[in-house]
Amino acid sequence: MPDRKYRVVIVGAGISGLYMAEKLKHTGIDFTIYEKADEVGGTWRENTYPGLFVDVLSRQYEFLFQPNYDWSRKYAPAGEIQDYIKKVARDRDLRKYIRFNEEIVAARFAEGRWHLTTAKGETDTADAFIVATGFLHKPVYPNIEGRESFAGPAFHSARWDHSVAHAGKSWGIIGSGCSGIQITEALAWEGCEVTQFVRRPQWIHIRENPRSTLWERLKLRLPGQYAKKQRELWKFIIEADQWRLKPGPAREAMEREYRSYLDVIRDPELKKKLTPTYHLGCTRIPKSDQNYYRAVQLPNVHIEARRIAKIVPQGVELADGARLDFDVLVYATGFDTHTYMRPMKVAGLNGITIDEVWKDNVFSYGGVAVPGFPNMFLLYGPFAPLNNVPVPIGLEHEISYILRLIAEARKRNAAVAPTAAATEKFRARMRAAFPGTVWVGCKNWYSDQEGTPILWPLPQDQHEDFFAEVRMDELDFVPARGQSGREAAE
Ligand SMILES: Cc1cc2nc3c(=O)[nH]c(=O)nc-3n(C[C@H](O)[C@H](O)[C@H](O)COP(=O)(O)OP(=O)(O)OC[C@H]3O[C@@H](n4cnc5c(N)ncnc54)[C@H](O)[C@@H]3O)c2cc1C
Q1: Backbone angles phi, psi at 138, to 5 degrees
Q2: Is-above-0.85 flag for pTM?
């Protein structure tokens, strides 16, 4: 019999929060989603810059419970991903659980429950608190003198200003990560005057992105076809990602292939500016659908490797004193990737705060929980798979495990958190797995202050295995006296 009194609050209505909601719906547990914006989608609502396409196969990014037969391309444009997420929310009737325009600013565990406060000053309580706030949502701006003095429009890639017409303007794009590459390429082919500032060149995957044909879309609808295609896809992905985990011929062949993409660059100086000096895969690999290396050779495109010393009203001043003038500046400078749910103030057992616990480094048990924070569950927290397990598969593992933890805790009229010892053991296992993987040996946004990347460094089957079993000896249960369901039963 579902116990409607037990209550879960989810924070965030991006892919993770919606995925959790759909799974919770089937347990009969009462829940609410708080979303600070006015729409679902998270990343895909916020990022609308030109040239944004999903960097994995579209089919690899589907919620496992909601097939989509109609992707327009092998790698869908961002708007299509956002439409799909909205459709999932609609088709699964999830919108009715969402409180839009409600930001949770504080969460405190006291008397066995979570006490939540919104930005509007309202309060709520929950037996379990699910943090689905994403890890790429707090834009980082470059710390360059004079940034506020620029006279024209200037915005972060995740805050694209669509009122600014592209044509006839000179654009300065600061940043050479995934967003900077995609924006430069898109504006370049539109014929805009573009200068991209590239301090550290990236390995770029030059790929084909064909439209899907009517026959391909129809075929997926034939009996058994979709399931067969997905089975083949998951098998392919597991094999295709092995090169990231261990050195060997597969990795060498991959690096040779990526190096060969640079061969279309005719000017040796330009080629040098764009040739990475670290190994392939150490940073997230930008994807180029319209051949970035050809785009940067257009006469309207300039790659600038000199350091920006200062931003001035007309544009930028370089370290050597030269001035470059622009109509528009774009900060494609990424996100604060280790912020997670913050600036939300989170306090666990005995008032200990997440800021204190994560003072030196962010960490978790399995990417989903933190000792001292009972019944707080993270989706895609520190050490979640970011590169080698597709997002929906990672979420399936995490969510089914969290639901089992909730069930165990409810059986005991308790709230559950991993023990400190188990968390340390887990972190040691992660640290031990990194040598030999591609993620070590360069500066990347995954790495914590000690240089340990906070992603999953093991094969996908070990991610599944980790979550297959609830290891009771790795968990602490604390009384949850305030559970309304229990009170009602007593
Ligand atoms: C430009 C860009 C491109 C990307 N491309 C890919 C890709 O191609 N493939 C891939 O696998 N991954 C990609 N990613 C990673 C992407 O972030 C994840 O795949 C996924 O979308 C994360 O979903 P999420 O629900 O966990 O987080 P988000 O999508 O970040 O959603 C979090 C939600 O929580 C809300 N929220 C946050 N704090 C609060 C609060 N305090 N109160 C209330 N609501 C709150 C936010 O408004 C947001 O709606 C990309 C990321 C970016 C930035």
Answers
A1: -110, 100
A2: yes
